[in-house]
């Protein structure tokens, strides 16, 4: 998986070069998307493109996301990704190269567009059964985390805090609420009711999160979109996380305390089974 795309050209990764004056490097001025592939087929590509368009509009970056499927097709072909059970594609669009001024450069520069393939772990039943461990950390992100921007330093620091604590994931907490993971959306089961934080500027509404809500509704498994107080995590019978690379994984310990019986619970098991069935049957769009 060595061929990448940069500003209209496909080339070996080691030959890709971006200016040190690129605003993505200088300011984190850009957006990105991550798309899982199963045998070369994208999971919920249209939803991801719409999220990318929304980010581009919000940041006022003039780029036509309609070009992305063609870019992806070129990467899939050149890297023979259809031969892999699972892989992923990442695309990043910045405002381009310009002087280091906080206001946008005028006239506008051409955006920098970089896309590349990445590995996606195949399902590991033993690892899934083992579950994840997590720690709670303060949410220090900016006020528009619903936009998938390059400004991920708070997420990086949260994940580093988890690693230093010997945990797999961080749960971000703000104003007494457990919002989401540093790399995933958060679901809890309290008093027999599954819930996830409402879609707002406080979380990134994940594509996998939306897919899980759809699959749950089809199976008669109610999930309420409502906040979860961080103190309530101690009473949860299940906690699990969803994301493009995570799919669904149960959290079995939080801050060193066992969740439920310390193993994946029935809600996570059913929804994970539904997700794997959808992928196996080729049901990759909504």
Task: Note down, in words, how this protein is organized.
The structure is a single chain. With 286 residues, the protein is an alpha+beta fold. The chain has seven helices and 15 strands. Strand 13 and strand 14 form a beta hairpin. The two termini are 28 Å apart. The mean pLDDT is 93.
Task: Kindly summarize this structure in a few lines.
The chain is an alpha+beta fold and 286 residues long. Helix content is 27%, strand content 29%.
List keywords for this structure.
7 helices, single chain, 286 residues, alpha+beta
Sheet of most strands: 9 strands, mixed
Distance between the termini: 28 Å
Fraction of residues in β-strands: 25-35%
The coarse overall form would be: globular
- Overall pLDDT score: 93
Compute the CA-based radius of gyration. 19 Å
Helix content: 25-40%
Uncertain segments of ≥5 residues (pLDDT<50)? none
Reading the helices and strands in chain order gives EEHEEHHEEHEHEEEEHEEEEH
Summed up, the helix count is 7
- SS-derived structural category: alpha+beta
The total beta strand count reads 15
Oligomer: single chain
């Amino acid at each position: 998986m060595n061929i990448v795309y940069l500003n209209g050209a496909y080339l070996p990764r080691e030959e890709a070069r971006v200016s040190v004056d690129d605003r993505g490097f200088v300011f984190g001025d850009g957006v990105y998307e991550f798309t899982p592939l199963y045998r070369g087929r994208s999971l919920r590509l249209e939803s991801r493109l719409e999220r990318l368009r929304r980010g581009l509009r919000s940041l006022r970056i003039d780029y036509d996301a309609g070009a992305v499927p063609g870019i992806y097709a070129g990467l899939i072909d050149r890297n023979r990704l259809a031969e892999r059970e699972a892989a992923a594609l990442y695309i990043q669009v910045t405002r381009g190269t310009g002087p280091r001024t906080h206001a946008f450069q005028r006239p506008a520069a051409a955006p920098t567009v970089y896309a590349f393939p990445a590995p996606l772990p195949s399902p590991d039943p033993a690892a899934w059964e083992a579950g994840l461990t997590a720690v709670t950390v303060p949410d220090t992100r900016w006020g528009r985390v619903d936009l998938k921007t390059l400004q991920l330093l708070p997420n990086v620091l949260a994940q580093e805090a988890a690693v230093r604590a010997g945990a797999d994931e961080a749960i971000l907490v703000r104003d007494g609420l457990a919002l989401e993971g540093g790399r995933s959306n958060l679901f809890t089961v309290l008093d027999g009711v599954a819930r996830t934080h409402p879609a707002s500027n406080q979380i990134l509404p994940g594509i996998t999160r939306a897919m899980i809500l759809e699959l749950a509704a089809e199976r008669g498994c109610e999930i309420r979109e409502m906040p979860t107080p961080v103190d309530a995590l101690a009473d949860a019978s299940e906690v699990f996380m969803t994301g493009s690379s995570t799919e669904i994984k149960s959290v079995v310990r939080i801050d060193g305390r066992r969740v439920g019986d310390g193993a994946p619970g029935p809600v996570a098991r059913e929804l994970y089974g539904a997700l794997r069935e959808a992928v196996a049957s080729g049901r990759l769009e909504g």
